[in-house]
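Table S2 (continued). Query chain:
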Amino acid sequence: MCKVNSDLSTTCVCPVVCPDDYSPVCSVYLREFNNTCKLHKFACRVGILMGIERKEQCDFKDYEREPCPVSSLLQFHDRYLEYLRVAKDQSDPSYDPGFWDISRLTYEERKDIIEWEFNIQDKNSNDILDPDEIEAMLIPFEDCMIGFMKSCDYDHNPGISRVEWNTCFPPIVPELHEEEVEV
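Corresponding output:
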């Protein structure tokens, strides 16, 4: 969450304690939280970007997709990175896959895979994943994919820039269990 400092600059902070007030928000993953603070607290705790779809309860009849289950959300980034690693490996026979366990990838190896995907998907080489390019990237039956793409677009300009894409993937997702998640 952004906190306004005395000099009117802002600092991003992870909330530790949230008020109990009920002012529901619906995340881009179609997960409902009692208030914005609790959404940010959850996102910080699991180490992901999570945008707000609407500042009210999720109304599922407005969507053609299902909510991203918490258990899927907690493992989505690693699952997607693993998917990208396999795709990269299959596209380049000279690529050395090393360990298949993505938790053992170095920061540079993770960055290389993430950059590779951006370069492959940016068909017009304009350094932005345009809406049609994003649409082509969506994986059928992956409940978390649309929320992930919406969270990557944190400046809310059309498309996802290279900088936004590179910050979408947390360096390491902490291991959490669904029962530890407060909404």
